[in-house]
Design a protein that fits this description.
Structural class: alpha/beta
Radius of gyration: 17 Å
CATH class: Alpha Beta
Strand content: 5-15%
Order of helices and strands: EEHEHHEEHEEHHHEHHHH
Number of helices: 11
CATH topology: 2-enoyl-CoA Hydratase, Chain A, domain 1
Number of domains: 1
Shape: globular
CATH architecture: Alpha-Beta Complex
Length: about 260
């Protein structure tokens, strides 16, 4: 694999490294790899940037540490949202990451070493190919705090189907990694992170050596039915931005923090 990319600061961040045609993009945050607004902006920008870089033929997306892949939205920031404009802008961060991933001309292979929650599951669903550890369970947790998986919904529904997405949205409980593999969120599962990384190394190297024109065409074909997502995700972000201000959601977030 390319040499490890630099660790992010204690406040979290995004970093990248390109070698051998492989662009590694890593995000991390000390609170379970959660996603505050600044990290979302940086992640969308980084994915867009490596997608335009001719030295990159495949993007390997990963998160830092050995714990969760992604804990979803930052609860610290959810608590500070004061009006609908702020709310919509926060959730637009997730929309921009999903759009950056699906519009990126390079295939995005995502490494999932641990649990993926809420917005983190949206990142998984917006990936082109996902390899995961058997401990990497998934959950759409939004309803538990009075919102709903509106922005990530189109990406998740596209992978698992409408009926399963509706069930996940209403029943905000965990699904194990085997369930995620059966329903198309994960392409392959591994019984350890070491096994995951060994297989991932070979896979991305082979993909980086494939015909780039053919790979780019496969990417365009795969996401061709998402042309309306910029409008749709903006509408969904506005919905979430309104709901996060409700007394129900405020109380649920406060209770969750305790």
């Amino acid at each position: 694999m390319p040499e490890p990319i630099a660790a992010a600061s204690a406040a979290g961040g995004v970093s990248s490294h390109i070698a051998g045609g492989i662009a590694q993009v890593q995000f991390e945050h000390p609170k379970g790899n959660s996603l505050p607004a600044a990290l979302l902006r940086a992640l969308a920008d980084e994915i867009t940037g490596v997608g335009r870089n001719d030295d990159a033929r495949v993007v390997l997306l990963r998160s830092g540490g050995a714990g969760p892949f992604c804990g979803g939205a930052s609860f610290d920031e959810l608590r500070t949202i004061a009006d609908e404009t702020m709310g919509k802008e926060f959730f637009m961060g997730f929309a921009r990451v999903i759009l950056a991933m699906t519009r990126c001309p390079k295939p995005i292979v995502t490494r999932v070493q641990g649990k993926a929650v809420g917005g983190g599951l949206g990142i998984v669903a917006a990936s082109d190919y996902v390899m995961a550890a058997e401990t990497a369970s998934v959950r759409l947790s939004e309803l538990a705090v009075g919102i709903g998986p509106f922005v990530v919904g189109p990406a998740v529904e596209r992978k698992v189907g409408r009926a399963e997405f509706a069930a996940m949205a209403i029943d905000a409980d965990w699904r194990d990694a085997e369930w995620a593999e059966r329903h198309g969120l994960y392409a392959k599962l591994f019984d350890s992170v070491n096994a995951l990384d060994a297989a991932l190394e070979m896979f991305v190297r082979n993909l980086a050596e494939a015909n780039p024109e053919a790979v780019a065409q496969i990417k365009r074909m795969t996401w061709a039915d998402t042309a309306d997502w910029p409008r749709l995700l903006e509408e969904r972000a506005a919905t979430s931005g309104r709901l996060v201000l409700s007394h129900f959601t405020r109380d649920a977030i406060a209770a969750f923090k305790r």
